[in-house]
Amino acid sequence: LHTAQLGGNQDTALVRRRISADDGRSWGEPHTMIEPGPDYGVFVRQPPVVTPDGLWLLPGFRCVTPKQGKWVGDADISEVHVSADQGRSWTSHAVQESTGCVHMSIVPTDGGYAGFFRSRWADSIYVSRSADGLTWSAPVPTELPNNNSSIQALALADGRLAMVFNASSVADATGRRLGLYDDIGEEDEAPAAPASEGRTAFWGTPRAPMTLALSADGGRTWPDRRDLDTGDGFCMTNNSKDKLNREYSYPSIAQTNDGMLHIAYTYFRRAIKYVRVKPEWVKH
């Protein structure tokens, strides 16, 4: 599953799929799976979750077109796309009161599911809960910071939850960008949308350190945390060609049968960095 969009306009995004029948060695042609709406794009970042009764839960969000100017993320809202036929068709279920909460990462917990969110406000990681994966509570802040950059959560074999994220927030920012694509410089593009009357997306908070945290109570508290990578996380530009961008971002995490955690993330927008640790490493 992946998105496609026109330039830096996430409000034109759609979701496509390609299918492999040989364990990923080769892939079929891309097909559009979820179309954008008349005033929003559809974006996905996290993998789907399969419920015990076979439903596919694909977290996503709508990139809402502003009334004037380019998309900057001020009005993005989350939804869960649900399929009962292994991805052939989908219905969308809105996450109530989720403006500014995106990149929803769904994990199973006792009695249901938890969904963790990146915050456009660059304040905290947020969490929503659901008994069935279809109806979700309004997201509320967790104790973990967020910098308006992506996260990923994982349910471990022993029942704990793991989270990979940047342990920084707007409080650590030394500057602010107009938007994620403000240095593309396309002459035919509209300027970034002017500040709205409500809350506005904050871009430019350092994307570092890259941190691993563990929770033993379904994500209510995260007492165990350790940095995987440290640096200044400078991301006031996307320029990686001249090595100006120094962010760690967009982490992914998986656990293998031997208990090891496998983590990958963007390294300075020039490479993908891979780290392997035991869960116990976090406490040392």
Instruction: Tell me the number of strands.
Output: 19
Shape: globular
Which bin fits the share of residues in helices? under 10%
| Global mean pLDDT | 95
Please tally the helical runs, counting DSSP H or I stretches of 4 or more residues: 0
Determine the structural class based on helices, strands and strand pairing: mainly beta
Low-confidence stretches are none
Tell me, what is the CATH class?
Mainly Beta
Name the helix and strand elements from N-terminus to C-terminus, one letter apiece.
Answer: EEEEEEEEEEEEEEEEEEE
How many angstroms separate the termini? 37 Å
Could you tell me the strand content as a percent range? 35-45%
Please compute the radius of gyration using only Cα atoms.
18 Å
Largest sheet: 5 strands, antiparallel
User: Based on the structure given, which CATH architecture is correct?
Assistant: 6 Propeller
List key phrases describing it.
globular; mainly beta; four-stranded antiparallel beta sheet; 19 strands; 284 residues; Neuraminidase
Q: What would you say this structure looks like, in words?
A:
The protein has 284 residues and is mainly beta. The protein has one domain: Neuraminidase, CATH 2.120.10. It contains no helices and 19 strands. The strands form five sheets. Strands 4, 5, 6, 7 and 8 form a five-stranded antiparallel beta sheet that branches. A four-stranded antiparallel beta sheet has the order 9-10-11-12, with no helix packed on it. The model has no long low-confidence stretch (mean pLDDT 95).
